[in-house]
Design goal:
alpha+beta; 5-stranded mixed beta sheet; two-stranded antiparallel ribbon; Four Helix Bundle (Hemerythrin (Met), subunit A); Nonspecific Lipid-transfer Protein, Chain A; 2 domains; about 45% helix; about 300 residues; 10 helices
């Protein structure tokens, strides 16, 4: 399928990256305790360093320059990564990326975001770059992914220091349609592990929200593909992007999201959704091991 990034989505991705980057940086520059635990394993400073390492990696992707994050073997590890090994990669990076001083982290993140936005000013947003698992994502999707990192890890950090952290649905929605669906339009490489046990019959799940185009994803025949939105489906999922993303990344439970009606599951065969999600799921970065520990 031909894929074009709507101009308004590209504009929103660029605006959201600037706005959410500034909000995230404010968590580091207003006297926040960098040693407060943002997740069971990561401090506020660890979380910020993780986001900064991603931003620096993205600078090297859009500027076609040497990798700004100097981590041993990273260039060979990244193409072989899938959603279930992302946590190990994160821990490996943080063992070697040791900056934890809040003001320095904030300043470096601001510089990285400036570099990304400057380098992509004239770049067609449909331009693809290599990503984890040898996937191909658009430049717009790359920005959308970084926005999501700022939102989700900012949520962790803000909770740790008892700060409000509203997540705008329009910014959160970029992750779904520009990053994830954009990747499916191109190539997901080995990021989604289709060597896992597969359902006997294909499963079609339709996703719908007020902020994104309706999309139907089909899992079957050891592959994941987008289908026309009017094709028959097994499951329908209606979602509010902000809470949906927190659910996808393990920050809130499926039960709570359903209770709040942030995610509504229906369709003729909703019981087939768990089998779909065993393969088509996101990394649970909240459970990433602490730098220096070996995950077992």
């Amino acid at each position: 399928m031909t894929y074009a990034v709507p101009a308004q989505r590209w504009t929103l991705a660029r605006t959201a990256l600037r706005v959410e980057g500034d909000r995230f940086r404010s968590l580091l520059t207003d006297g926040t305790d960098p040693t407060a635990m943002a997740t069971p394993e990561w401090t506020v400073a660890d979380s910020a360093a993780h986001v900064l390492s991603i931003a620096l990696l993205y600078v090297s992707l859009v500027e076609d320059s040497e990798m700004a994050v100097q981590v041993p073997d990273l260039d060979t590890i990244l193409p072989a990564t899938n959603v279930d090994t992302v946590a190990d990669v994160n821990a490996h990076v943080l063992r070697h990326f040791t900056e934890r001083e809040p003001d320095r982290l904030a300043a470096l993140l601001g510089e990285a975001i400036d570099a990304i936005l400057t380098a992509t000013t004239r770049t067609p947003p449909e331009t693809t770059v290599p990503w984890l698992g040898d996937a191909r994502v658009t430049v717009c999707g790359l920005l959308a992914h970084l926005v999501n990192e700022l939102l989700v890890h900012g949520w962790d950090m803000a909770r740790a220091v008892r700060r409000p952290w509203p997540i705008p649905d329009d910014h959160a929605a970029l992750y779904w349609d520009q990053f994830f669906l954009g990747m499916l339009h191109h190539d997901y490489g080995v990021l989604l592990d289709t060597t896992l046990p597969m359902p006997k019959h294909p499963i079609a799940v339709q996703f719908r929200s007020a902020y994104t185009p309706t999309a139907t994803i089909v899992l079957g025949d050891r592959r994941i593909r987008l289908a026309p939105s009017d094709d028959p489906v097994d499951v329908r999922v209606r979602f509010r992007p902000a809470r949906f993303n927190l659910m996808l990344f393990g920050r809130t439970s499926t039960a709570l999201a359903a209770l709040r009606r942030d995610v509504v599951i229906g369709g003729p065969r909703p019981w087939r959704l768990p089998a779909f999600l065993r393969v088509v799921h996101m990394p649970n970065a909240r459970l990433a091991p602490k730098p220096g520990r070996t995950r077992r």
